[in-house]
Amino acid sequence: MADHLLEHVRSYLDRDQDERIAYIRAPRWIGHHVAQDSHRRLAELLERPPSLRTQGLMLVGPYANGKTMIAERFAVEHLRTSPEQKVWIAQTREGAGLGHFYTSILQALRAPGSDIWDLRRKAEQLDHLLSSLKPRVLIFDEFHNALRGRARDVEAVFAFLRRIGRQYDISPVLIGEVVVSDFINGTSEMASRFDLIAVPRWQYDENYLMLLDSLEAALPLAKSSDLSSEPLARRIFGLSEGLIGEIVTVITKAAVAAIRSGSERITKGSIDELRHVPISQRRSSPLRESLL
Prior knowledge:
By secondary structure, the chain is an alpha/beta fold. The protein has two domains: 79 residues, no CATH class; 166 residues, P-loop containing nucleotide triphosphate hydrolases (Rossmann fold), CATH 3.40.50.300. It is built from 14 helices and five strands. The protein has a five-stranded parallel sheet with strand order 2-3-4-1-5, with helices on both faces. Helix 2 packs antiparallel against helix 12 and helix 11 packs across helix 12. The relative contact order is 0.15.
C-alpha cells in the first residue's frame, strides 16, 4: 500500500527507474518553520506603506542551509500572484567596490553590461532602471562578497542601500554568512535599518525528526525506511552536521542507491556505503590526501 508515502508520490512507484530517480533528484521546497517565517516577513516588506527610510532584512546562516532557496521560492510565488514583478534577486559578484556591486544589480535587472570601471555610466543606467521598473524588494544573495574590500568600498555599498530606500522606496534584503550581520551591526546607522532572520543549523530535536519524516514521505521508495528512527537519524545528522542542504543530499543519494540496488529502502548500512564526507572534514579527507 506504500502508506508511508504522500498520496501524489505513490503514483511514481509505477514509473520506470529513470523517472523515479529524476523525481528524487529534482529540487524540492521544504516549508519548515524558519522558511515560513522568512516568507511572512518578506511579504510584509511588499505590503508596507511607502517610506523615505525603508526597513530591510538579513537572512544569515551557514553555507548549504537553504537561505537562497527561501528567497527564490518567495520570488517565484510573487511572480505567480502579481501582475508586476516587484521582487528581484541579484547574485552579488565577487570583488570589492561599487563597480562589481552595480554590475550584480544590472545583471539581475537583465540590463546590457558595460565597462565595469565606468561607475558614472553604470550609476545612471541603474537609476534609470530602478525608476522605471519600480522594484519593491531587492534581494542580494551572497552579500558577503561585497564586504571583502576596503572600508571605503563597503561604506559606498551601504550608502547605496540607504539611498535606494530614500529615493526609490526599495527594501533591501541581504543574504549571506554571519559576517553580513557583523558588518551591518557595526554601526548604529545600518543596524537600525535591518532586522535579522537567523537560519541556523538544525538541532537534533523533534523538528529535525519531523523533517526526516516529511522527506521520506516525498521519496518514491516502495518500502518504509523509518528515517527518524534513532540510529538512522543520528547517522544522517552526523554526516550533514545539521545543514539542511547536506541532509537532503545524503538522503537523496541514499534513495537513488536504494532504487538502483532494488532494496527500495534506506538503511544505516546503505548510507555508510555512500562514503559521504561531512563538509568540515573535506579538507583533510583521505581522498584529498591521495591527490597530493
